[in-house]
Amino acid sequence: MVTEEWLANLNTEFRAAGIEQRRRPWEAIRRYSEQFNTSVNFSSDVAKTIFKWFEANSKPGAHQVGSLYEAVYFYDAQFWVVSIPISYGTVQLNALDCIHEMPNGIKQEMMADHRQSCDYVIYWADCLDYGMGVDDLRKMQGLNEFGLQLLMSADQELRSATSILSQHRPDPRAILNCRMALEIFFKSYVALKNGLTQSEAKAIGHNLNKGLDKFIEASGFDDWESTRQLLSVFPDIHERYKEQDITFRKLWDGYSLAHSLGAVIIREFTDRNTIQQVMASSNAN
Q1: What is this structure's pTM?
Q2: To 5 degrees, how large is the angle CA 155–CA 157–CA 158?
Q3: What letter does residue 234 receive in the DSSP assignment?
Q4: Are 251 and 170 in contact (CB under 8 A)?
Q5: Hey, how many other C-beta atoms are within 10 angstroms of the C-beta on 109?
Q6: What are the residues whose beta carbons fall under 8 Å from the beta carbon of 195, sequence distance 6 or more?
Q7: Exposed, middle or buried, 39 (CB in 10 Å: 0-12/13-18/19+)?
Q8: How far from 86 is each of 117, 122, 125, CA to CA, in Å?
Q9: Residue 258 to residue 159: CA distance in whole angstroms
């Protein structure tokens, strides 16, 4: 049970350690999870109590919270935000709960279509692995430094695209962020897997076909050859100064391809593999 005394003592400790006020509830949740050997979900009563206490004992606005990770999913001609909640320990997540802005009626229609429901759940698994795994890799020791640098750069491009596509009126120029994310993810994988010099990265340049070739060669994932046709949705690099005119469907094709590659990298270099559990469950049913 979370007590006033426990929280006050923690806050005194955090203050002495110079921990920012906005970080304190997260540290308190982590400490609670470790101390009492229990999982703490973002929406649990324990988490709500901790957030409420720190909100009352901190600067106003210091604890505005978001998700651990956000992406977008395309359905019914719209982009929908997929939010992966912050949690500690082992918790169960519901794929549909993560697309909370979608009305229940549309959710039911989507899940009634077996192919569509499988597509969404697999994509949700990608979001879960990627959102949690990027931070894992950032903290991991012994990785190729250039590869990690490229990964973080690609991550920024992908998140920028997400931010744009989350808007009420998505800007078609998001396809340029998707293009850069895909290009840099290709190079990041090769660098993390086999090593890649900056001159070798420059030799690949902005050529997505070359990037795909190098990725397949390094990974052995020959099935990715089937994605080559999707590269046509991206504008040539010299067109980045032009106005972009692209359908939402093609925007989704470009975004989801880049996101899928990011998830592949995470699963390759961490122990996260939600997709494996999802596929096993699907086959069992």
Answers
A1: 0.78
A2: 65
A3: S
A4: yes
A5: 14
A6: 144, 147
A7: middle
A8: 24, 20, 15
A9: 11
What are the DSSP E strand ranges found in the chain?
40-41, 69-75, 78-84, 87-88
Closest CA to 130 of 278, 258, 280, 283: 258
Reported as type and span, the H/E element at residue 153 is helix 145-165
40 in helix, strand or coil?
strand
Query: 135 with 155: CB under 8 angstroms?
Result: no
> Nearest Cα to 192, choosing from 273, 274, 262, 275?
262
Helix (H, G, I), strand (E, B) or coil at 146: helix
Strands 40-41 and 87-88: antiparallel
Structure token pair of residue 211: 């990037």
Distance CA 250, CA 233 (A): 6
The CB density around residue 224, as the number of other CB atoms within 10 Å, is: 16
Highest mean pLDDT among 37-46, 58-67, 171-180: 171-180
- In tens, the pLDDT along 89-107 reads 445 678 888 998 899 999 9
Distant-in-sequence, close-in-space partners of 175: CB < 8 Å, separation ≥ 6: 233, 234, 235, 244, 246, 250, 251, 254, 255
Please give the structure tokens belonging to residue 262. 């990011």
pLDDT tens, position by position, 184-201:
999 999 999 999 999 999
Q: Which residues pair with 75 in a beta bridge?
A: 78
The position carrying tokens 């229990």 is: 38
Q: Quick one: tokens of 148? A: 């990690």
